[in-house]
User: Which sequence fits this backbone?
């Protein structure tokens, strides 16, 4: 980690702790933070890194978004003593936007190589691009999931925050195996954009559909390597620093999605982007983001209790027949999560509803979409 010093700035703990000391129950008392020296991350389950770059959204000034969120996060109570957390500070901004991208890409590449789970705090939504390119540096093919009210494929836009998905999904060489988009609001998305994504066999979930059955997003996030959450997906009343839409996910629903992400043994990076402190009434959005991170930690704690497939005594096994195929379903006795088998014997994450449909001789849509991609 010593070679990453040049890309990082330490945390100002005096700012975080300016009006109250942490007690022995606060996260701030347990997080190994970069104040003078980088912490040892070899045993860390989760690593926090801040990004204050927002020129990709057309904003010239650097924000202090990461530290404002930290100030709220460090005050939350630490329930999950089986989860070790390190905070390695903030990425140094470059002279140009691309310089900051390069620094983020370098830092995340090294952390992914160490097989750590990384949470990126702050920055505009285009920071998803260097987050993705970190996997390209190590030639890793990934599943990516974005939570956003809009779909940032506007190639005509001069703002990276509105167009980065075009480069991410169509650039060469490409390392996207599958892409999911959660929470789009139809009036912000051109119909042809959805048609194009569907032809590519990518999955897009409208906000209303997700709200009606949010538990169906758990298998989606269980299969994900990279997650990017634009805080504009949360409705204005729950995240007032964004004026994007009065509609969207509630704060509780956003926390549920982050908890599902934390439960994924596959996910290695998650970013929460788009926070603008200067627009945040009474820091309610910072509190919202900090609680989303808390629920991610909660999910990580639960994931530690999941059994491996070879530990058969911790799974219920069910067999059903549809489309003349004998398909096996596994249900974890520890977490109650489900998996289903594809014809090539690959096991993919699924939900209880997929099993119910299969037992009624109805092809689960998740099974069908996976087959189409193959």
Assistant:
């Amino acid at each position: 980690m010593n070679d990453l010093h040049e890309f990082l700035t330490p945390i100002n703990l005096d700012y975080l702790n300016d009006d109250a000391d942490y007690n022995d129950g606060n996260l701030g008392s347990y997080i190994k933070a970069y104040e003078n020296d980088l912490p040892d991350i070899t045993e860390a389950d989760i690593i926090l890194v801040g990004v204050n770059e927002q020129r990709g959204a057309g904003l010239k000034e650097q924000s202090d978004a990461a530290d404002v969120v930290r100030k709220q996060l460090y005050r939350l109570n630490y329930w999950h003593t089986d989860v070790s957390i390190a905070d390695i500070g903030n990425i140094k901004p470059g002279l140009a936007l691309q310089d900051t991208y390069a620094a983020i890409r370098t830092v995340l590449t090294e952390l992914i190589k160490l097989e750590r789970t990384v949470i990126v705090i702050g920055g505009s939504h285009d920071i998803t691009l260097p987050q993705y390119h970190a996997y390209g540096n190590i030639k890793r093919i990934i599943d990516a999931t974005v939570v956003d009210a809009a779909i940032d494929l506007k190639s005509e836009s001069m703002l990276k925050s509105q167009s980065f998905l075009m480069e991410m999904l169509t650039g060469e060489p490409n390392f996207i195996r599958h892409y999911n988009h959660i929470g789009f609001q139809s009036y912000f998305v051109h119909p042809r954009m959805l048609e194009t994504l569907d032809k590519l066999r990518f999955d897009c979930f409208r906000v209303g559909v997700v709200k009606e059955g949010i538990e169906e997003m758990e298998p989606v996030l269980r299969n994900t390597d990279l997650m990017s959450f634009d805080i504009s997906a949360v409705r204005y009343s729950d995240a007032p620093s964004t004026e994007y839409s009065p509609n969207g996910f509630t704060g509780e629903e956003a926390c549920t999605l982050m908890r599902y992400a934390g439960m994924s043994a596959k996910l290695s990076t998650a970013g929460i982007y788009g926070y603008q402190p200067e627009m945040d009434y009474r820091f309610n959005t910072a509190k919202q983001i900090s609680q989303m991170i808390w629920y991610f930690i909660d999910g990580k704690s639960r994931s530690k209790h999941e059994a491996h497939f070879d530990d058969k005594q911790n799974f219920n096994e069910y067999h059903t027949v549809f489309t003349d195929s004998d398909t096996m379903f596994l249900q974890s006795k520890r977490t109650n999560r489900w998996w289903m088998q594809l014809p090539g014997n690959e096991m993919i994450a699924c939900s209880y509803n997929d099993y119910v449909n299969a037992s009624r001789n109805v092809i689960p849509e998740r099974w069908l979409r996976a087959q189409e991609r193959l």
User: Anything to note?
Assistant: The two ends are 39 Å apart (CA to CA). The chain has a mean pLDDT of 93. Residues 284-303 form the longest helix (20 residues).
